[in-house]
Design goal:
Layout: E1 3-4, H1 15-26, E2 39-43, H2 49-63, E3 68-70, H3 84-96, E4 99-104, H4 106-110, H5 112-125, E5 130-136, E6 156-160, E7 176-180, E8 191-193, H6 194-199
Parallel strand pairs: 1-5, 2-3, 2-4, 4-5
Antiparallel strand pairs: 6-7, 7-8
Length: 200
């Protein structure tokens, strides 16, 4: 499934929630990363408000599953001007976060930084700890989504509406978010509940 922009827009997009998220990110440091069951590096394009609102909605989804989320656009430890120090900070945080999620909007897939972050995530997290969250433009058909081909090798976050069945045992797939492996050579797709993926 490719989500449509606005799907993850936060229902708590109020000043208090944004400030709380900002404060948590601003106090994030790699030494305290192990204090939480799971820390997630959320890679996203943050040059415009729409992208930030989508990211905040994803933060809300993940925080509701009891994880700590880091996004660099809200990190006050970042230098004011992009530099090697910026890259070093990002690399350090990706290394120490347990999971890596790329909010793969069309703009993020065109972004040098998001692609670089995914590469760093690949080195330090390996495939089992990376998930792509594909988001298309509003009103766009799924076949029009031009996700970079290399993101197809990673698991992606999907949503099941409670009407599909497992192929191996015929049981009903519960409604909710899942992390789906890419289909294997036999066309089989393995899924795991998002909350379970975050714990493991």
């Amino acid at each position: 499934m490719i989500f449509e922009k606005g799907h993850f827009r936060s229902s708590r997009l109020q000043k208090s929630f944004i400030n709380e998220s900002l404060n948590q990110t601003r106090t994030f440091n790699v030494e305290s990363a192990t204090d939480y069951k799971t820390t997630v590096f959320l890679s996203h394009k943050h040059k415009d408000l729409d992208e930030l609102e989508e990211a905040l909605g994803v933060i809300e989804l993940l925080e509701n599953l009891n994880v700590k989320v880091y996004i660099d656009s809200m990190d006050n430890k970042m230098p004011s001007q992009t530099s090697g120090e910026t890259a070093a900070r990002i690399k350090d945080v990706i290394k120490y976060c347990k999971k890596f999620v790329l909010l793969a909007t069309p703009k993020a897939l065109e972004s040098f930084w998001c692609n670089w972050e995914l590469g760093i995530g690949d080195v330090h997290k390996f495939k089992k700890n990376i998930a792509i969250l594909p988001v298309k433009e509003k009103g766009q058909y799924s076949f029009e989504y031009c996700g970079n081909e290399y993101v197809q090798i990673y698991p992606h976050i999907d949503y099941e509406d409670g009407t599909n069945y497992y192929t191996n045992n015929g049981g009903l797939i519960s409604k909710g978010y899942y992390v789906a492996e890419p289909r294997n050579k036999d066309g089989v797709r393995y899924i795991k509940k998002l909350e379970d993926w975050l714990k493991n």
